[in-house]
Amino acid sequence: MSERDAGGTDERVPLLVVDAANVVGSVPDGWWRDRRGAAERLRDALVAVARHGPAVRDEAHARPEPGPVEVVLVVEGAARGVAAVPGVRVVAAPGSGDDRIVELVAEALAAGPRRDCRVVTADRGLRARVTALGAGVLGPRSVWPAHPARPES
Fold first, then answer.
1. In the prediction, which pLDDT does 31 show?
2. 38: closest CA among 20, 52, 54, 55?
3. Is residue 53 a contact partner of residue 68, using CB atoms and an 8 Å limit?
């Protein structure tokens, strides 16, 4: 079940691939004591992002980008085993989460070259790899913690 959700894939819907380890690590809230629990909290917050879209920062303001979006949360290490929920597909990377994210982006863009595909991460190396493929990037604050400019339900 970890690589499926109830919604399926629609190439007309933008794809948002989330680097769980990087996004969770961007907020020093004790995530290191329970990596799986932190990834589950992020997954749950992403349900609203799937419906309403990520927050896009415009100088000092944030505004939601129109949804819905297909959300794929990539987990690795101790966070493997996090289950998918409706609206958020969870992919457990067998090795490097970054490598799996690059594979997902490459697959999505090969299947639908005009599809809007973005990766949420602050990792410079990963950003360079996915932009070279044609994907856009957003920072962790676009999805985590839940931004007040984005409705929660």
1. 85
2. 20
3. yes
Closest CA to 23 of 4, 41, 1: 41
Structure tokens that stand for 29 in this block: 């809230």
pTM of this structure: 0.85
Q: Who's near 34: CB < 8 A, 6+ residues apart? A: none
Please tell me the predicted confidence (pLDDT) of residue 27.
85
- Please report, for residues 19, 109, 123, 145, 152, the alpha-carbon distance to residue 26 in angstroms, rounded to integers and kept in the order given: 11, 27, 10, 9, 20
Enter the DSSP assignment of 74: E
Q: Which residue has the tokens 């970054």?
A: 98
H or E element, residue 66: none
Q: What pLDDT does residue 6 have?
A: 38
Q: Computed over its alpha carbons, how large is the radius of gyration of the chain?
A: 14
Which residues touch 113 (CB under 8 Å, ≥6 apart)?
134
Q: How far apart are CA 86 and CA 142, in angstroms?
A: 20
Q: Say how far apart CA 5 and CA 139 lie, in whole Å.
A: 24
- Residues of the chain short of pLDDT 50, as ranges, are 1-8, 59, 61, 147-153
